[in-house]
Structure formats: structure tokens, C-alpha cells
Amino acid sequence: MLRNELLKEIMAVPSPILSVYLNMRSENTARHPRADACEVWLEKQVAAISRGLSRHDTKEIMKQLQRVKEFLHDRHPKEKALAIFAGPLSWIAVPLQVGIENEVAWGQPSIIQLFWLLHEHHPYGLVVVDHHAARFFAYRLGQLTELATKEFAVDTSVWKEKKLGHQASSGSQNMRGPYPDRFEHRMEAQYARLCRETADQAVSLSKQYGLIHVFVAGPDRLIDIVQKHFAPAATLVRQDLGNFSSAELLERLEPIIAEYEQNRQLESVNQLLGSDVADIANVDETLAQLQSADVRSIVVSKNLEFDMRHCETCGLASRAADPVCAVCGGTRTPASFHKLLPALAMSNNTDIEVVSGEAAQKLNQTGGMSGRPRQTEIAAVR
């Protein structure tokens, strides 16, 4: 599952690195996967890049190209796309279940696409419960990852032997009267305990994997018990999906998660724009506060894009058109907001949330980006 830790691992890989993003599936799913077409396109891109490289770097990029081609050859991918980072001492392949832009880069690892995907698609938890077990999943980027399984094992033999055994001579006593009721009460108590333990395990896994919300699917009598032990509350899906495969669960639950995510994004933007605290709605001010490490979080529209200039000496970036940095006098080179934001956010430890749909439309009315100062946290604590 794509996580921040993976991006940091990729960024720590020594350069130069061959970064490759490839869509792996053709539109006609009945045809052979398009690995051959990917290889042809990849060779052309690397050939174009190598024309501007030294003899040493050209030799090295060709080595990494060969590694990637060998990896792709005769491959029958299950993933929709691949991100590959290949270097002399490294190899990282990231399977993705969402479409990307085909891209090849040489030098520093190119994590821009992964960064935007990571901050656009939040991780959710899914717990599927029936009377036999609870299965725990993480959902992100169109993919379900199974995290754990908890078997619901209830041993009733001791109850029958100690409490009901002396009545075994009477069939009517076993089927009617107070003893069957007592048995049912004990069963309910056992399932209440198991559901409580399920909720505790789900909360623990949510913290471990950074899941922002949990969906619990199953029969009413079980998921209602699980819900009682969640804070904040989980979203209940009142469907018995215990026998469903991961693919079937994804097909059934992905629309529900998508609707929740859109509503959550809209609520986040409404809170940010309607807050009484000193939120930053101006794009230029937000960029300045970001680079001075005064912003703790930023909400940005998915398709927001504009031209910027970036100082090669001190690293400061802004929308100003001046070719010379006003701070250090260094040369300012053109760059796009889309490419600069990942480095700015990661270097200043700022949380980024990317919104789309109605939430993005509303945010675009104020410039497409807004931030919240770090002082807000201090004021809230006081």
C-alpha cells in the first residue's frame, strides 16, 4: 500500500535513478497486456534523454533500461500501472490500481505523481464481519489490502456438559424452557466480547496504518455491537458480505467509500473557509507561509496549476516573474506549481490534502488553495 514512508524511502535512494511510470493495461482487456508496447515507448524516451548525457551516464541509464525491460518482458500484470525506480544499488517497483501519466526521468527520483496520488486518495479501513470471523482491510488507490483475520471461535461444549447435561434425558428440556434461553444468552455474550475485540483490533490497525475512517460491513446484530466501541463512529454497511472475495468486496463497497470521501472533502473545505481562526486563503501568502514553515496544513484543488519561478541558490519559489531572487540574488528558473509543491511540502513538514469535485469547485472560488497556520494549534491548546 502506498504510504508516506515509501516516498521517503524513494527520495533517500542515491542518484542517478531511472524513474519510470507506465500504464500497464490496454483498453481492450481481452488482449494481451501491453508490455511490448511499453518497452518500445520506453526505449524511445530513454534514447531521447541519453542524447544530453555524458558517456558515463549514458552507459548507466542503458543498464537500468535493460533491467526495466527484463522486468516487463512477458509480464502479465494484475495492476493498472507501475512506478519503477531503478539505480545501480536500488530497485523499487510500486504497483498501482489507478491510471497515471506515462513518464521517464533520469537523475533525482521523480516522485511527483506518487505524491499527488498519495494526497488525493486517503486510506480507509474496512472490517467485514460474519458469525465465523472478522476480516480487516485497508483501502487506497482502488486496492484492498488484507491486514488481518480474527476467527470467531466459541466453545460451547463446556456449557452443555456442566449446565445442561443433567437434563439430557428430556428432549423437551433441551429444546424449550429456560436452558435454551441461557445458552442463547451465553452465545450473545460471547459474540459481544468478540465484537468488542474486533473493534479494538480495528482501532489499533487504523492507528498503525494511518486509516482516516473505518467502514464495518455485516449483519445488524454484529456490526451494531462493533459500532459501540468506535470513537469516532464507524460507518455501518448493513450487508452480509462474509463470503465475498476481495474483488467482490471492492466492487460492492468502493462506491460507498467514494461517496463518503467526496462528502468528507466538502466538509473539510467548508470548515476551512468558514473557520473563525486565521486561515490563509490567498495563494501567494500561502506559498510564502509554506516556505517559512508557518503552515501546518494545506488544502489544494486537484487541477490547480500555475507558473512559478524557483531560485537555484536559496530554493525560494513564488509566482513573481523576476528572473533574479530578491533575497539572495540567485537565478530564478521557471517551474510549475504542480512539480514544486511536493518538495516544498516535504521539506517543510506540511500536510497536504488534495480535493476534487464539488469541494474543489468551492475552493477554486477563493483561489484553489488555502492553508492553516501552525499558530492555530497553539491557540487551540491554550
Provide an overview of this structure:
The protein is α+β, with helices and mostly antiparallel strands and 382 residues long. It has 13 helices and 15 strands. A 5-stranded mixed sheet has the order 7-6-5-8-9. Strands 3-2-1-4 form a 4-stranded antiparallel sheet, with helices on one face. A hairpin with a 5-residue loop joins β11 and β12. α2 packs antiparallel against α3 and α9 packs parallel to α12. The longest helix is centred in the middle third of the chain and has 32 residues. The C terminus is likely disordered.
Sequence stretches where pLDDT stays below 50 over 5 or more residues: 27-33, 168-173, 376-382
- Span from first to last CA? 37 Å
What gross morphology would you assign? globular
The percent range for strand residues is 15-25%
Radius of gyration: 27 Å
Q: Count of DSSP helices?
A: 13
Q: Tell me roughly what share of residues is in helical segments.
A: 40-55%
Rounded average pLDDT: 85
Q: Structural class of the helices, strands and pairings?
A: alpha+beta
Order of helices and strands: HEHHEEEHEEEHHHEHEHHEEEEHEHEH
Number of strands: 15
Strand order of the largest sheet: 7-6-5-8-9
Major beta-sheet overview? 5 strands, mixed
